[in-house]
Amino acid sequence: MVAVIEAHGLVKKFGDVVALDGLDLVVPEGTVVGLLGPNGAGKTTAVRILTTLLKPDTGNATVAGFDVVRQPNKVRGVIGLTGQYAAVDEYLTGRENLRMFGDLYHLKASYVRERSLELLERFDLADAADRSLRTYSGGMRRRLDLAASLIAKPSILFLDEPTTGLDPRSRLGLWEVITDLVAEGTTVLLTTQYLEEADQLAEEIVVIDHGRVIAKGTSDTLKDDVGGDRIEVVLTDRGLLERAAALLAPVATGEIVTDHEEARVAVPVTGGSASLIDAIRRLDSEGIDIADVVLRRPTLDDVFLTLTGHVAEDES
After folding, report:
1. Are 206 and 255 found together in one domain?
2. Which of 21, 80, 154, 226 could disulfide-link to 211, CB 3.0 to 4.6 Å?
3. Element containing residue 219 per DSSP (H, E)
4. Cα–Cα distance, 107 to 109 (Å, whole number)
5. What integer pLDDT is reported at residue 316 of this predicted model?
6. Residue-wise pLDDT tens digits, 139-181
7. Among residues 223, 252, 283, which one ends one of the domains?
8. Both 260 and 238 in a single domain?
């Protein structure tokens, strides 16, 4: 795949604070890459450099082949940006906001009228098009903000924590829109603190902390890297825990953990459901009764905790 966003060795300091510390990033055309990290990790600083709002201290970056420092106007002509907070004007109507963004892009009035109608329909805002934004909900404002970033039909879209502060229903609605855009060929760089969001949308996830990349890969490969699957068995008789652990040792790929208080045995495995069936048969053959059994995949929360030493919510 052709890379449409590339960054190499980006460094940015604000006084004594190092926001980016040699960041490398590659985003292939027509994909969603999720930039995942806690507050202060450098996500927004990276987006601001890639969208020409900041200049790096050292390093270089290109977007659609244009250098973000030497050719900023070229970059701005092919991108759309939605930041953490809606950039729309609450004293204007939805339609007037889209017209304003069209003017900023120096687009023809006839094109802006037609494109605005299309976007208002697409984002379920047509009925509210001529209402002041002061009457809009948070979800409506975010949808209009995203619509405004699409007024010029950009091929590359930067979404900097676009669903921050939204209720679950509004968040799901934006996810659907983003998925549709990518299906149409748009390339998306998405920053987020929501692990579920990265899991749902991103084809590749880049985890950054303290301004540098600490891991990257697909959601599944990152989960595999922190330990793969595990079988958790709860017994009806906690006195049989050690016996159960011994029976399950042949299917284990690592250390077996027992919890006497909950009568639970946790077994790291590979092979998914086949390992689960094997484990159940081994216990059943010895007459060990099972109160509950489950095959668990690691979550991105597990990945985040392993890589950064804390869960994402600690930094939200």
Report:
1. no
2. 21
3. helix 219-225
4. 6
5. 38
6. 899 889 999 999 999 999 999 988 887 788 888 888 888 899 8
7. 223
8. yes
